[in-house]
Sequence to fold (437 residues):
Amino acid sequence: MKFTRSNHLRRRAHQIIPGGCHTYAKGDDQYPELSPGFIVRGKGSHVFDVDGNEFIEYGMGLRAVTLGHGYERVADAASKAMYEGINFLRPSLLELEYAEELLDVVPGAEMVKFGKHGSDATTAALKLARAYTGREMVAIPAQQPFLSVDDWFIGSTAMPGGIPESQRALTVKFDYNDLNSLESLFEAYPGSIACVIMEAAKEDDPDDNYLQSVKDLCHKYGALFVIDEMITGFRWDIGGAQKYYNIDPDLSTFGKAMANGFSVSALMGKRDIMNLGGLNHNRERVFLMSTTHGAETHALAAARETLRVYKELDVIGELWQKGAILRDGIQAIIDELRLNEFFELNGKDCCLVFGTRDQDRQRSQPFRTLFMQETIKRGLLMPSLIVSYAHTESDLKYTIEMIGEALVVYKKALGEGISKYLIGRSVAPVFRPYNSV
Ligand SMILES: Cc1ncc(COP(=O)(O)O)c(C=O)c1O
Fold:
């Protein structure tokens, strides 16, 4: 497999675009040297790069594309809306109609406001919580790697450049599944924490009653409880992890898979809180999610059609089933090669990820790079094992077979040293203070 054109374009891109692209997770430092630099087109679960190479893609659109690339019903709905006008002086009827349809599938939510990015919603949730409680701080789980592109979150990462210390001091962290660590924060900052914002779960399930206890703690200390459904929404369940775990947050935030890749996000929640952004109250007004492009019709039409497809076809069921096929097939190979302590499968079947460990059983970015190099070589673009509705049985069969081959190389590298097999530098975490690691 050749990447000649990709390599040429990479040099051009880094000359004029900081990072070479517009999402760090898509950056060159996230992929092995032998990898496609630019994609020109996708169909279903397959993508084609600038050198004409074809790949089966996993975790498509950073988990936003759940039905498949170029899914016709959604593309047609968006295109029809485009020809009828994208953006008017007054709201489009679609804003109301889709809001009603969406509220129907998220049981506890009473009001909704749309945005373009997930971060629009999580940051707005924090703003509302601050306005509602009159407090400034936010508590987040230390184990959850991403909740927003905005300063309140990025300031808490290993890459806080450009964010004032005064902002950074307002975000504090607790340990997931450890109620005492959260309660200690409420005690350490009395009357200061506006809300807890968290994903309901990552790879590990919440302990029994953990989420309800977090909500109860929040309310005991006068804070709001916000669930970030960016990854879980439209994947674990249409109604997200809150439906899956039967927990009713004050506010929740959706994005990613809502619109099969179109840019739509949503802040949802209880009327008395959400209404602070409205026109019918006498409290101080809150400027809540109001942008020029906020509710463009084509994106909302895509979102509405995506929701309808989910309701008509068993999309969620298939995501779980397809992920289970992958898990079983790959686990059998791991067992056969006796790689259990070196290559692991984590997460729910509908949202499967892998973990790589070196010969000393330590988490390893070089081994992650090697696995990606060997799967790319075999036509798989897979920073994760996250399926879409478009992945076919033969995609899954081929994937399992090729992972089998890649893991044979992985095993050899464990025994003989990775430098013999890895070509070029390792991938590196996005959140690092300096480029060199
Ligand atoms: C859990 C979670 N929350 C929020 C976000 C931010 O979403 P966006 O990138 O659409 O702003 C992400 C993005 O990866 C996410 O994974």
In short: The domain at 87-295 is CATH 3.40.640.10 (Aspartate Aminotransferase; domain 2). The chain has two domains: 4-69+314-420, 87-295. Residues 62, 117-119, 122, 146-149, 199, 228, 230-231, 255 surround pyridoxal-5'-phosphate (CB under 6 Å). Residues 34 and 373 are 6 Å apart (CA to CA).
